Amino acid sequence: MAQKKILLLTGDFGEDYEIMVPFQALSMIGHQVDAVCPGRKKGEQIPTAVHDFEGDQTYTEKRGHNFTLNASFDEIDPGQYDALVISGGRGPEYIRLDDKVIALTRHFAEHNKPIASICHGAQVLAAADVIRGKRISAYPAVAPEVKLAGAEFVDLPVDQAVVDGNFVTSPAWPAHPDWLAKFLELLGSKIEL
């Protein structure tokens, strides 16, 4: 399997599992994963949040771990990456306000590079105006933004993902097995056991 260079985009209080699991899983199989956050440098930490489904009308949120970034946001060149991962949680609601986040998201979409977005990550896709005409899943509370951005919101069970072109999206972290498997297919990565 050829190593791919993947950019993982996150922000303060991004969802813990949606940062840690793809970072570790994609690294484990040999891909280079550079995790960045606007305004932060390599070696700095961001706080994460743990979102859980405990029978309430929405998820609950608790303080998660500190996650150490391994690349500096201001030094990245999207042209050097093969794919983009956008984690969910609360990070997307504010990182989408950063012009460089919008520009790099558009770069991946315009160059038809694989983009994996989970949960609230679709807020970044909607803000970048790159999902018009696409079938996109996200956390259900983000459905209005997905629709307003001209995409078809796909209401999936929480453990499933959907692919449309170079996009693979899912509602939340319970979809990791399906979401990551579909992302690996888009990357052309084969795991032999």
What does this protein look like?
The protein is 28% helix and 25% strand. By secondary structure, it is an alpha/beta fold. It has one domain (5-187): Rossmann fold (3-Layer(aba) Sandwich). The strands form three sheets. The chain has a six-stranded mixed beta sheet, with helices on both faces. Strands 2-4-5 form a three-stranded mixed beta sheet, with helices on one face. The chain has a two-stranded parallel ribbon with strand order 8-9. The model has no long low-confidence stretch (mean pLDDT 96).
SSE inventory with pairings:
Layout: E1 5-9, E2 14-15, H1 16-28, E3 32-36, E4 45-52, E5 60-68, E6 83-86, H2 91-95, H3 99-110, E7 115-118, H4 122-127, E8 135-136, H5 143-148, E9 152-153, E10 162-164, E11 167-170, H6 176-187
CATH topology: Rossmann fold
Largest sheet: 6 strands, mixed
Strand order of the largest sheet: 3-1-6-7-11-10
Report the C-alpha radius of gyration, rounded. 15 Å
Described by its quaternary structure, the protein is single chain
Task: State the domain count.
Answer: 1
Order of helices and strands: EEHEEEEHHEHEHEEEH
Strand content: 15-25%
Name the shape in a single word: globular
CATH-level-2 architecture: 3-Layer(aba) Sandwich
Give the integer mean of the pLDDT values: 96
